[in-house]
Design brief:
Length: about 375
């Protein structure tokens, strides 16, 4: 049977005006949220660049620049050498002019550096992949925040409706007690008791109304629409509530395999391992090729028109710089490994807590459904 309406017209009007006041505060704009607001539309705004997402996007761009910088270490380089000088030549020099200028075009390329550049490039690529995964994780987290803020508004509305209706009920009880007091059928104590109960529920109603506003403001902020509070939200169809839960170990395994934060940290560990290899390769030899063409204002027998050659650089002593770089890189590696393990533990624990909470809420839902059936039958009997 349908539940009887106990809310007076004045109270119903008050509830409607309370919600419509949010819509009245909106400034007409192309960016305003639609009325009513659905969860699907709210989630469609997930790809809008919020300030936090813009910062992560800048990190991705910086990582891309790091790859270009790493690749440039073995790339082709060319530069112009220009020298302008005036001299007082010795008497035995055949070219007695005072101008001794030189202009040259020089090209060079590192042919092989025994693993230094490859380690740098691999580290940069792992860092880029980690940044991209962090951006993807932030996008997923924003989706969760949107859903949480959306349902917080719906819960605040339900709470308001509950206290608004309860306030109407206790108001009627207080009014009837007042009439009976005027007829001498009850005492002042009974009337005061009803007044206290009415004020208590009235306070809760005002609190729930404030919660409606707070949750709407938070939802507007999460949707990147600060100040544009939605008035009406559509309850989505929750068709997965009856889904049977699998064993928690299965969810933990899937979470560790697909959690983007864990994946990003694993790539950061790989990048740190490459950084250790790069630091150790500081003392490795370097083979370079160089060619140049020159033009002179004074020509001598040693003035080459062009030259080309190969140079092998073999570091002999770096004063402990290599050891310091290796120690710094290893410290970063240990820190990344520890952060990865801590995150894996937190993910497993979060999955367990969520799994237990869902199981508890399922039993609580069954208890509430039974209580609702009891109230319906009790109301029918009454």
């Amino acid at each position: 049977m349908s539940r009887p309406q106990v809310m007076p017209a004045a109270m119903l009007l008050m509830a409607v005006l309370s919600l419509s006041s949010y819509a009245a505060e909106q400034t007409p704009s192309a960016e305003a949220l639609p009325e009513p607001l659905t969860l699907d539309y709210a989630l469609s705004l997930i790809d809008e660049l919020t300030p936090a997402m813009q910062q992560l996007q800048a990190d991705v761009m910086a990582a891309e620049a790091g790859i270009a910088e790493a690749e440039s270490q073995t790339g082709f380089n060319a530069h112009i050498e220009a020298r302008a000088q005036w001299v007082d030549p010795a008497a035995v020099v055949s070219a007695q002019g005072n101008e001794d200028h030189r202009l040259g075009l020089v090209a060079s390329k590192t042919l092989y550096d025994f693993g230094r550049s490859s380690a740098t490039e691999n580290s940069a690529r792992h860092s880029l992949s980690a940044r991209q995964l962090q951006y993807a994780d932030a996008r997923k987290q924003r989706r969760v925040r949107i859903m949480q803020a959306f349902f917080d508004v719906l819960l605040a509305d339900l709470q308001f409706y509950r206290y608004n209706e309860e306030m109407a009920v206790v108001y009627i009880a207080k009014s009837r007690t007042k009439d009976r007091r005027e007829l001498g059928q009850t005492s002042d104590l009974d009337l005061l008791e009803k007044e206290v109960e009415y004020q208590r529920v009235r306070h809760l109603r005002f609190q729930s109304e404030s919660e409606q506003r707070r949750t709407r403001a938070k939802l507007a902020q999460v949707l990147n629409r600060p100040g544009k509070l939605p008035a009406t939200l559509v309850m989505p169809e929750l068709k997965y509530l009856k889904r049977k839960l699998a064993e928690v170990e299965q969810y933990q395994k899937v979470a560790l395999e697909n959690n983007t934060t864990v994946q990003a940290l694993r790539l950061q560990v790989a990048a740190a391992e490459e950084s250790v290899g790069r630091a150790r390769s500081t003392n490795n030899p370097r083979l370079k090729a160089e060619a140049g063409a020159y033009s002179y204002s004074r020509e001598f027998g040693t003035s080459d028109k062009w030259r080309a050659g190969v140079t092998l650089e073999v570091p002999l002593w770096t004063g402990g710089t290599t050891d310091a770089n290796v120690a710094r890189a290893q410290a970063g590696l240990y820190r990344n490994r520890a952060q990865l393990r801590a995150t894996e533990i937190n993910v497993e624990q979060a999955v367990l807590e969520t799994w237990l909470e869902l199981d508890s809420m399922r039993s609580k839902l069954q208890a509430m459904e039974a209580a609702a059936d009891y109230r319906e039958l009790f109301l029918d009997r009454s």
